[in-house]
Design a protein that fits this description.
Layout: H1 7-19, H2 23-28, H3 42-59, E1 66-74, E2 77-84, E3 89-97, E4 103-104, E5 111-119, E6 126-132, E7 140-145, E8 148-155, E9 162-169, E10 177-185, E11 190-198, E12 213-215, E13 218-220, E14 230-235, E15 240-244, E16 250-252, E17 257-263, E18 269-273
Parallel strand pairs: 5-18
Antiparallel strand pairs: 1-2, 2-3, 3-4, 5-6, 6-9, 7-10, 8-9, 10-11, 12-13, 13-16, 14-15, 14-17, 17-18
Amino acid sequence: MTGHCNYKNQLHQLIVAFVDANIISARKRCSTQFGWQNGLTLEAYLKHNISEYSGRKKMYDVSNGFSIESVVNDNGILAFTVLDQNGRWICDDHININEQGYFVGNQSRYETITKFLFEQNSSKIKRSFAVRSQYFIPDQVIIISPKTNDIMLSQSPYEADFYHCKFSLNEDAGSAFRAKARIYCKQPVYHETKMLIFKGTNHAFFQNEMYPVIQGNQVFIDQTQLLSWSLAVQTEDGVYHHIQTPIKECYYFDALVCSATLTDALDNDWYSFNE
């Protein structure tokens, strides 16, 4: 491979390997100096993406083809969007590529997932980002810029390896923006600064009013729009339920439902509670 490689073709072949669960083919397209990608070593990164695309094959029609759109090469950082053959949004992602045309990690020890946080009966726009690492549990997060309010870091009751940092901006019109955050771990001692990209409500695939509807021991979700990543439910008996890639319109539980959070296709969280 050379510095003039067709990075779009390389990217397409990597996604094909993920869809086909071909870890050998995917590994061949990555540098031996891969390092870390969002808290994952090369082998963990490959297995994680094969697992992710396995779930997407059930949700979308990617086995028979997909397209990669909006590929931007920013000094070796490839940002891209994956659509299924019907033009439905699957994911946004990014990865680095070196001059020889091999993929390398971003050397970050943390995976971060930016979100809107919409709460039932609240007109205030809130933001959050999920933080995950195999080795460095976040103890503190400081958002260096822009100026934020009411910042709070907590562990997810549904997925123990995820932490959520919630905050609001002084003025938030729902636009996309970049944030600079510092993540601290006390044991072992480690800290890292990350640039985060938050989507706006003008994203081409943003869907409004995705709140789950609670009726007694049932939760209804909107399946007429983009399929969702997960449904998290807390019932009156204190049990937390986590459903990956929910595909039914209605879910039944043994006890009355207290609250439910739907994570939509863009990773935004829609929180409802039993009034």
